[in-house]
């Protein structure tokens, strides 16, 4: 399944993340791809708000991973960019297969750790403030989730 969304500002990108949040369960994995500044962290910030996490979400680029607690579900935000050509056996699988939802930027660098059941989101610049977001999944449960997110986004 593949669904297309268009966001005209940061608030819409965050809202889309917030609409996904109520459907997330432990061990859900969301892969995020897109150029630098495309809105990946903005999207995850919306997910955090939707999970009732009060922390300010920041890019995990220099830390590799940021963990957010205090909401309905733990949120793990991984940026695997710096793991290119590195040993990926650093314990990330414990979070990917853990008690929260895991959002992974630059997933190609840790591909062996990525489960088959996942959502893939590609975020692209269209215009200065406009982004296209392409959601993909082969998992039937996650396909139903994406359909509900699409319906809610289209009706807001």
Give a quick precis of the structure:
The chain is of the alpha/beta class and 156 residues long.
Kindly state the percentage of residues in helix: 25-40%
Shape: globular
Q: Which whole number gives the mean pLDDT?
A: 92
| Uncertain runs | none
Main beta sheet strand tally, sense and closure: 7 strands, mixed
What oligomeric assembly is this protein in? single chain
List the SSEs and their pairings:
Elements: E1 2-7, H1 10-20, E2 29-33, H2 40-50, E3 65-68, E4 75-79, H3 92-96, E5 101-105, E6 119-125, E7 131-136, H4 140-155
Parallel strand pairs: 2-5, 2-6, 4-5
Antiparallel strand pairs: 1-7, 3-4, 6-7
What does this 3D model show about the protein?
It is a single chain. With 156 residues, the protein is α/β, with parallel strands linked by helices. The protein is 28% helix and 24% strand. The chain has four helices and seven strands. It has a seven-stranded mixed beta sheet with strand order 1-7-6-2-5-4-3.
Brief descriptors of the model:
alpha/beta; 24% strand; 156 residues; globular; single chain; 28% helix
């Amino acid at each position: 399944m593949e669904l297309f969304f268009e966001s005209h500002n940061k608030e819409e990108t965050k809202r889309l993340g917030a609409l996904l949040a109520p459907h997330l369960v432990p061990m859900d994995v969301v892969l995020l791809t897109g150029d630098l500044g495309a809105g990946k962290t903005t999207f995850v910030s919306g997910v955090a708000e939707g999970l009732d996490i009060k922390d300010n979400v920041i890019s995990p680029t220099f830390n590799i991973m940021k963990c957010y607690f205090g909401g309905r579900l733990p949120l793990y935000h991984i940026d695997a960019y710096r793991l290119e050509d590195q040993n990926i056996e650093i314990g990330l699988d414990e979070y990917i297969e853990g008690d929260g939802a895991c959002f992974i930027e630059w997933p190609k660098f840790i591909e062996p750790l990525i489960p088959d059941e996942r959502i893939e989101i590609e975020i692209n610049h269209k215009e200065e403030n406009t982004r296209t977001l392409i959601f993909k999944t082969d998992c039937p449960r996650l396909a139903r989730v994406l359909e509900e997110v699409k319906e809610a986004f289209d009706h807001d």
